């Protein structure tokens, strides 16, 4: 499979989402009254956010929409969901290009794992916090402090989408490279060399004194709907570590384990799993996380 065929869907989505009926007009979920109101002044924290990160936008409303979660004023203010979708597509495409350029000999599974390692919610939260997103974003704090990290990750993607929409692809690519790719320590070679992802995952969880995950079969969505595939998620309690799809549960589990390694344990792989850590485990083919 060529790199062009891998990124074509993302590129098409970017073109479709970035296009607007009126040039330079950013469509929002705002009410008509909000859409025609004067630009809103930035708070000192938001102005400092722009200055600290050397960002600029054609209108402060673009930044404010990117920084606004839909829980803020219960969706009555233009919020970030569309920009988040655009940012996610841009992120996937430019990170995929980076990985392909640097590691052109990766298998398809290792390629997906490397991209997932750079674009995981955990990494996006870390990047967002390093930028100060949590200090500038607008959201309903009454939904609970535990939701903050997830919202920071979403707002970070929306910020990328705002840059892509307002400044173009080159500016978004530069931002992704300098703020996300270069500071993120992903050992792509270690990810590519994982032979037994399920056994490796169990060993790394044990290092953190955690139990093995549980497999849950998930509804098929998107490209999987009309295909003969099984989609599974690997869970620790209510936390989903990874997700994978395949013709059988066994194959889907392997891909979900590789996804979990990329998203949650990429840095742990710097210290290789030793034979003693997996000696008591079943073989990769026999090991399963499906509850009896």
UniProtKB/TrEMBL annotation:
Residues 46-168 form the RNase III domain. GO terms for molecular function: double-stranded RNA binding; ribonuclease III activity; structural constituent of ribosome. GO terms for cellular component: mitochondrial large ribosomal subunit. The keyword Ribosomal protein applies. SUPFAM superfamilies: dsRNA-binding domain-like, RNase III domain-like. Belongs to the ribonuclease III family. Mitochondrion-specific ribosomal protein mL44 subfamily. This is Large ribosomal subunit protein mL44. The lineage of its organism: Eukaryota, Fungi, Fungi incertae sedis, Blastocladiomycota, Blastocladiomycetes.
């Amino acid at each position: 499979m060529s790199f062009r065929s891998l990124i074509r869907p993302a590129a098409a989505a970017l073109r479709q989402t970035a296009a607007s009926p009126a040039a330079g007009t950013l469509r929002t979920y705002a009410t008509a009254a909000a859409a025609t109101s004067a630009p809103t002044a930035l708070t000192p924290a938001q102005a400092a956010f722009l200055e600290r990160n050397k960002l600029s936008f054609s209108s402060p409303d673009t930044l404010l929409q990117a920084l606004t979660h839909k829980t803020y004023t219960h969706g009555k203010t233009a919020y970030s969901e569309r920009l988040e979708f655009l940012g996610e597509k841009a992120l996937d495409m430019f990170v995929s290009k980076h990985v392909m350029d640097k590691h052109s000999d990766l298998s398809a599974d290792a390629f997906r794992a490397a991209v997932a390692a750079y674009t995981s919610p955990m990494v996006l939260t870390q990047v967002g916090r390093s930028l100060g997103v949590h200090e500038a974003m607008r959201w309903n704090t009454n939904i609970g402090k535990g939701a903050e990290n997830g919202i920071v990750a979403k707002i970070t993607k929306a910020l990328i989408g705002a840059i892509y929409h307002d400044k173009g692809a080159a500016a978004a690519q530069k931002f992704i490279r300098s703020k996300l790719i270069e500071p993120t320590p992903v050992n792509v070679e270690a990810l590519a060399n994982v032979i037994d992802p399920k056994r490796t995952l169990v060993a790394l969880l044990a290092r953190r004194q955690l139990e093995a995950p549980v497999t849950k079969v998930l509804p098929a969505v998107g490209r999987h709907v009309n295909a003969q595939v099984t989609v599974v998620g690997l869970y620790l309690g209510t936390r989903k570590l990874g997700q994978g799809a395949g013709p059988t549960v066994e194959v889907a589990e392997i891909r979900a384990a590789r996804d979990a390694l990329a998203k949650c344990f990429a840095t742990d792989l710097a210290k290789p799993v030793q034979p003693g850590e997996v000696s008591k485990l079943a073989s990769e083919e026999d090991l399963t996380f499906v509850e009896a």
